[in-house]
Amino acid sequence: MDANVLENLTNLRRDLHQHPELGFEETRTSEIVARRLVDAGFDVTKGLGGTGVVGTLRKGSGNRAILLRADMDALAMHEETGLQYASTVSGKMHACGHDGHTTMLLGAAEQLANQPFSGVVHLVFQPAEEGRGGAAAMITDGFFDRFPVDAAYGLHNMPGLALGEIAAVEGPQLASSDHWHVTFKGIGSHGAKPHQGRDAVTASAVFLTQVHTIVAREVDPLEPAVVSACALGAGDFAALNVIPETVKIGGTARAYCAPVRDQLEAAIGRHAKGVAESFGIEVDYDFTRRIPPVVNAKVPTAIAQKAVRSALGDEALHTTFPPSTAGDDFAEFGARVPGAYVWLGMGPARHNGQHHGTGYDFNDACIPHGVAFWCAVVAEELG
């Protein structure tokens, strides 16, 4: 990559880093994206799914269409990097590298304008990946009706993977990400007279012990899964002689395949209802399906692997890499058309921090590798 181009993209990335915007609030970011896409010769659609942007480039007579996706949103976290270009917005920071993802796809857009191919490329700049459902919002807003595609590609940075290396692996990459809520409703009583009530607090303790046995004792050990209780609410520390009537518990469930996802939903509810029955209390249970798993399809994964080899060399490609129990709503695209989601190495994690950490920063040295990969995907798909 030309040094002037890299300097320009690095300055862009750091500007985005200084001005983080949360999901569905990416107004400044989306305006920057749209302006640079127009300047590169793309047809631009703004406001899809709220603040999403799609840049479309058609060349030649080919009918095949693909999408390349980058996420734009930041996280509600306080930055502690001490960088000169640290976040200027209190309580918000780019702690997952979406500023880098946006920059690399824009860099690719500006190179694709001069790259020969035959077909259609849709560059998707997605809002609200961090748990707010941006991909689903774009699809609900008519993405696939307006921009039919034959394949979808996503990329995410990965601290700990060597700088510029890319893992493109067939099969599960990220888990489903679902929420569950359990509310035990007992009969409150004086703390000194528990026999006069029905104790929802003790019931919740039994449930918490049981629910964490689901993966260990009910799920096939060859099928990865996670069930975690992450929130608990009951009582008042100003009234420690009162056993409360209600206890609320919430958590997450993760799986890589539909049958296990179904199994987790059923098992959490069964344990909640069983505990409530044994304590003679009531229970409300709700399981919210948020994001399906990201599972790389065979054909686009093979194309992504070819793209890595052609752009970065054989030594840069990893065809095996452990999946993550984190989630990414790129799954909404990959569940509808064949997709491939790759990991771009950022170098040692200690230098840049881990995802969602207050000391995280995207490694700008990754930019040329990400841009080259995106351009190579287009060449392999539509060249």
Automatic annotation (TrEMBL):
Pfam families: M20_dimer (PF07687), Peptidase_M20 (PF01546). Its EC number is 3.-.-.-. It comes from the Bacteria. Keywords: Hydrolase, Manganese, Metal-binding. The Mn(2+) ion enhances activity. GO terms for molecular function: hydrolase activity; metal ion binding. Its cofactor is Mn(2+). Residues 179-273 form the Peptidase M20 dimerisation domain. InterPro entries: Amidohydrolase, Bact_exopeptidase_dim_dom, Peptidase_M20, Peptidase_M20_dimer. Mn(2+) binds at C96, H98, E130, H156, H356. This is Putative hydrolase YxeP. The gene is yxeP_2.
